Amino acid sequence: MSAQEASFMGGVEVPPSKSLTDKVAIERCPAPDMVYIPLSQHIGAPAKPVVKPGDKVTMGQVIGEAGGFVSTNIHSSVSGMVMKLESRYMPNGMISQCVVIKNDGQDTPCEDMKPRKEEDITPDLIRQVLRDRGIAGMGGATFPTAVKYAPVKEGHRPIDTVLLNGIECEPFVTADHRTLLEYADEIIQGLKYFMLASGASKGIIGIEDNKPDAIALMQKKVASEANIEVCVCKEKYPQGSEKHLIYAATGRTVPDRGLPADVGVIVDNVGTAVAACRAVKNNVPLYERVVTISGNGVKKPGNYIVRLGTLYSDAVEKAAGGLEGDPGKIISGGMMMGFAVNSLDYPITKGSSGLLIFNSKSPFAQYVEPDPCVHCGRCVDACPMRLEPTEIVQAVKKQNWDDAERFFCHACVECGSCAFVCPAHIPLVQYIRMGKQFIRGKGDGGHNPFYKFDKK
User: Fold this and answer.
1) What's CA 213's distance to the chain center, in Å?
2) Which end of the chain is flanked by fewer CB atoms within 10 Å, N or C?
3) Which one, of 186, 171, 208, 176, lies nearest residue 17 by Cα?
4) For the segment 55-90, what is each residue's pLDDT rounded down to a tens digit?
């Protein structure tokens, strides 16, 4: 079966809603007067601060050192003075220590941001640069990239394929689409560095078939590359899910509780490839990224290069022209997997792919009261992981963690397909996500955290 024909069981057809921004070139958002840079912008241990109030810093300077093997360095996105270290809520509800820096407006670069000779680039150097320069997955998961490219342990399957994820199946979000169109050469060079670091003999760039312009460009760019190809995947949500993309592009199935490396594959986002290219070639750390700001609640929807630590409010005012009407719903991330937040007082991080704002008149801003489950089975049909969401949710409501695990709660990828098709409007994925947190030991084990979802 060809990659074009390959798909997966389940999933849903979600209106893409990308026309607001997919034809608009990327613009640069002016740096704000103050940045609030979280020391936890990645999966794993938070970075440890190495600056203090009163310190002067340059753009690209290390302000937080990796707190463990699964961690990343954090760099200043502006030059200026450290004002304080403070704890702030992140969009996912977690709390992170942040380094607050007053921008001096000079953008004085760190002195170690210098071009590197191509002949000096080796697999070991690439792995070290990925760690030193703070590269993390920019598709949303924010897994530290250097960890993926650590040397394969003896007895483990070698990596033979690096797969770049350019699917971007989230509605409204087009940051990766514009990155494919505007930074194609850096994407391909970043892929080559990934292949060199991992020893992979093949590179694949996965793009959903609703992006014909990006597909045509990338196919042209790799036409002369014998070991790199473009995989055109069917438009279907959640095609961008790591495990489902691996199946579509290679026909391999990642085992339960397994990693892509278990089937000889490493997956990275196309934006991560660009960041890796700049880090390896010019020693530039990850201190800015492309963010989609969209929805009918902003005056100028588009894709913007934004400094990390910029508050959403500053990005909206400085780049997107300000708010259009009263905001009715604000979503950090995408429509399906993002987090609804109560304000714009959150900083942009390495994993911030999108910010969606809908005014109070938008249908997306209207709350619908959940009804009792009608046992229609639509959530089961939609689940791309072949789970039974209703059974998991019932177990979670009862705090029966053994039953929740028996129904493979841990295997949920939190894509939201089940909630999308539920005629009773039950927030299934929210229940499952919170259940997973309790199973991992993050809950208090006694208080039922789900009361706010129950009908009165």
Assistant:
1) 23
2) C
3) 171
4) 999 999 999 999 999 999 999 999 999 999 999 999
pTM: 0.93
- β-pairing, 62-65 vs 74-75, is antiparallel
Which tokens is 95 given? 């709390």
- Which residue shows structure tokens 């929807």? 301
Q: How far apart, in whole angstroms, are the C-alpha atoms of residue 371 and residue 359?
A: 25
User: How far apart are alpha carbons 281 and 67 in whole angstroms?
Assistant: 26
Beta strands in 236-352 (DSSP E): 265-269, 288-294, 302-307, 327-332, 339-341
For residue range 102-159, what is the model confidence (pLDDT) as tens digits? 999 999 999 999 999 999 999 999 999 999 999 999 998 899 999 999 998 888 899 9
Tokens of 120: 């000096």
Q: Which residue has the tokens 């996965």?
A: 206
Find tokens 């049909």 and name the residue. Answer: 381
Distance from C-alpha of 206 to C-alpha of 245, rounded to nearest angstrom: 8
Residue 49 and residue 64: Cα distance in Å, rounded? 4
SS3 content of the chain, % helix, strand, coil (to 5): 30, 20, 50
